[in-house]
UniProtKB/TrEMBL annotation:
Gene3D superfamilies: Glycogen Phosphorylase B. It is an enzyme of class 2 (transferase). GO terms for molecular function: glucosylglycerol-phosphate synthase activity. InterPro entries: Gluc_glyc_Psyn, Glyco_trans_20. The keyword Transport does not apply. It comes from Hoeflea ulvae. This is Glucosylglycerol-phosphate synthase. Keywords: Glycosyltransferase, Transferase. Its EC number is 2.4.1.213.
Length: 497
């Protein structure tokens, strides 16, 4: 049966585990993140499909099935597993996407590595995704493509299936033209994105940048703009904008531009936060901490997340405030997703070095100033840490949105706690009640953490109430509604919802 909604996302939507010598498919262990959210859309259609890749070595197994049918709590959907060779994965994902695109998207020109890119392989892999989506889509279906590593899919798909509706969502920032146009494949990429019916971003700034880039490269006209959502900050922070593009025209077609921030599953976090298990975890952590204040920092190990700069600010805090010694701890969770890549190994090494220096300089037998955690913390424990952390310190140098800061606010059912947030995280546009900081300035970083640690309870509660209000209001359901609103009336998606 053909699918009304095809999600094209490079990762598979489940975990494969071996049970009694047989491979079985299980729902992802991690309940947070974007995959469960996307699967939630399958509940709105009769039949959904997901396109992802799988290592060709596994596909060489005679029992390998390219398309598998799944029925789970999210609905009925098929998963197409595109067999890619290790060389294709390395070229398409690790090299082109992570060494060339990723630094440019996050405005790190100096980390951009062009030489090893094999563009024909990138095209070939994107073509395979487009073909697989074309094979699954029912007439007039919605095909929803995610993120920069699939940038060429919309263009190919439009050729293969002119009838389908194509939506593309960027989870990363979209940089200004001076930065984006470093990519030599810029015209091809933007031409592909303009084959979509809808191109989506988290915040107005990224949409503004995209339209400038498109106008700098191609004959794009009739840009229709509107005022930004008044709930967002439209002046004063690094990523705020007053006006946002709503649609553009290209080659006689209208392309809608959406800016809607991805949120978190509020109800799920409320339920977890209220559970007995979380309470017990929190009690155990608190008894280990004693009277120490807890500062929590959580993120993937990546140069964009600003881990080194944050640890250096913590070092300066301890230098300037001997009275804090023994009275504060930083739990720095930095989990490596791409351990084999040189850029990430380097950053992990730097983080370990600064953390080691801090513990060596200031620590004692009784007090360890930084706990550096490099392996994933189970989500149930993470919620308990969120609930106990006096300060959640989220200071990326660039970040499309950042969901950790929203999870923190959602988990603070007690209404206390302080969020310190970088103005270069997309979330800062929504969460202006956080203590907003500029991670490129020592002074700004240092005063923000001092302010957070010294903040009176009344102010903490006032700011947290505003944060919780926004995080609840713009949760994952609001994002889902926004995304689906582009496919209304005649479309299967809204009918079934
Ligand atoms: C991209 C964009 C955008 C982290 N450590 C642990 C853990 N996590 C979970 C968090 C959160 C998720 O991972 C990270 O979300 P982010 O939004 O911070 O980041 P990216 O993975 O970089 O994702 C980003 C996002 O897409 C959505 O559009 O916000 O800007 O880069 O849910 O809780 N979870 C567990 N243990 C950990 O140690 N269980």
């Amino acid at each position: 049966m053909a699918s009304d909604l095809v999600i094209v996302y490079h990762r598979q939507p489940y975990e494969e585990v071996e049970e009694n010598g047989k491979i079985v498919f299980r729902e992802n262990k991690s309940p947070n993140g974007i995959v469960p959210t996307l699967k939630g859309f399958f509940g709105r259609v009769d039949k959904g499909a997901w396109i992802a890749w799988k290592l060709a070595e596994d596909a060489a197994n005679p029992e390998f099935e390219r398309v598998i049918e799944i029925e789970d709590s999210y609905g009925k959907y098929s998963v197409t597993r595109l067999p890619l060779t290790p060389d294709q994965v390395s070229s398409f994902y690790h090299i082109t996407s992570k060494e060339a695109f990723w630094p440019i998207l996050h405005s790190f020109k100096e980390r951009y590595n062009y030489d090893p890119v094999d563009w024909p392989t990138f095209r070939e892999v994107n073509w395979a995704f487009a073909e697989a989506a074309a094979a699954e889509a029912a007439p007039g279906a919605v095909v929803w493509v995610h993120d920069y590593n699939l940038w060429l899919v919309p263009g190919y798909l439009r050729k293969l299936r002119p009838d389908v509706k194509i939506s593309f969502f960027h989870h990363t920032p979209f940089p200004a033209a001076d930065m984006f146009n470093v990519l030599p494949w810029r015209r091809e990429i933007v031409d592909s994105l303009l084959s979509c019916d809808v191109v989506g971003f988290h915040i107005p700034r990224y949409a503004v940048n995209f339209v400038h880039v498109a106008q700098s490269l191609l004959e794009v006209g009739n840009v229709v703009r509107k005022d930004v959502n008044p709930d967002f900050v439209w002046e004063g922070t690094a990523l705020s904008d007053r006006r946002v593009p709503e649609s553009v025209q290209y080659q006689g077609r209208t392309i809608r531009i959406s800016s809607a921030p991805v949120g978190i599953d509020w109800d799920f976090i409320q339920e977890r936060a209220a559970s007995e298990e979380t309470r017990e975890n929190a009690v155990a952590i608190r008894s280990e901490l004693g009277d120490c204040k807890l500062i929590l920092s959580v993120g993937r190990t990546d140069y964009t997340k600003g881990g080194v700069q944050q640890l250096e600010s913590y070092e300066r805090l301890l230098q300037a405030h001997p009275e804090m010694h023994g009275n504060v701890r930083l739990m720095h969770v930095s989990v490596g997703a791409n351990r084999s890549m040189a850029a990430y190994e380097e950053i992990q090494g730097e983080i370990e070095q600064v953390a080691g220096r801090i513990n060596g300089t200031f620590g004692s037998f009784e007090w360890q100033p930084v706990a550096l955690i490099s392996t994933a913390v189970p989500f149930r424990d993470l919620i308990a840490y969120y609930q106990l952390a006096d300060v959640c310190w989220i200071t990326p140098l660039a970040d499309g949105m950042n969901l950790v800061c929203k999870e923190y606010a959602a988990a603070r059912t007690d209404g206390d706690g302080v969020l310190v947030l970088s103005e270069f995280a997309g979330a800062s546009v929504e969460l202006s009640s956080a203590v907003i900081t500029n991670p490129f300035s020592h002074r700004s970083m240092d005063t923000a953490i001092e302010q957070a640690l010294a903040m009176p309870e009344e102010e903490r509660r006032h700011r947290m109430a505003m944060l919780r209000n926004t995080v609840q209001r713009y949760g994952i359901k609001a994002w889902a509604e926004d995304q689906m609103s582009y496919f209304s009336d005649e479309d299967v998606l809204s009918e079934a919802s």
